[in-house]
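Support case: iron/sulfur cluster complex. Customer-provided input:
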Amino acid sequence: MDFSKLSEFLVQNNQPAFRLRQIKLNYYSGRYSSFSDMTDLSLDLRQKLAENFSLYSVKSNLILESESTKKARLVLADGSQIETVLMDYGQWQTVCVSSQVGCPLGCTFCATGKMGFKRNLTVDEIVDQILFWKHDHKVSRVVFMGMGEPFLNWDNLLPALESIKTNLVIGSRKISISTAGVVTRIIDFANLNTEINLAISLHSADQATRENMMPIAKQHSLTELKKSLDYYTKTTNRQVFFEYLLAKDVNDSPKHLDLLIKFIKSNKLFYLNLIPLNPIKGGLTPSDKLSFFERELSAAFVNFSVRHSLGQSIDSACGQLIVD
Ligand code: SF4
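Agent response - structure generated as follows:
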């Protein structure tokens, strides 16, 4: 919502000064699907607003539901489509937002990467994904783990985070950003020194394997990545969460395990999330070594947990979001 244009419009229509604040509160409450629903405004004003503004920058065209997850396909003003997911963890509901239409990074295990890249999402298109779910759910957490690499949309990411904190009143500790490892932005993020959680798609602690899985590793090596993350933990004193999808005959050998143990144990603030791979069409095969990894990681006293993604049955789990 372009509030500066709205403000001008309200002045031109002789509305009192508090009207802008009233509409802002309505908008960020997520309770209204359109201006027509805002019955605390006069009918005349509601009609004029509907003629001149769109309340949200995203429109739903498909919602798929499984037991604990809902996935929505949203259409943007230019016809582009993105996906966003609501995960129900019982006492809290988490929204997984997209930051780009498609993704330029092309990780081999990821459905979004196979779409290619179309464009960055605007601040409104990021925030409106949360408002979309807020209409019917009590959203308490937000994760940037949907389509796209959030750190490659830095200029819109920062104001979107600010809006989520101040307008949607979701605290920094309840927001997580996952990056494939854009080293320069990790340093910038460290310098911001926020309490927002940082997750890294690691998937291998072996340079050659990581390059095969994640082409970005050719640009930002593991050594550089580790250096930037040591800087992050030193600056913020906060944990870094590493995601490791276990793929058969790709990153599940004893050598991969040894390198992983060494990498995670190299910094006491590193924490590993081991994730069973979610199959995608033409993608990697899930590994059968999960129990072996679990046993060995425990024996080596590595800080880790196994994170089973919700929503596999509707293709809304990690790495499965795609718009054909
Ligand atoms: S895993 Fe993330 S960074 Fe890699 S292609 Fe998919 S969306 Fe992009």
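The longest helix spans residues 222-236.

Case will auto-close in a few days if no follow-up is received.
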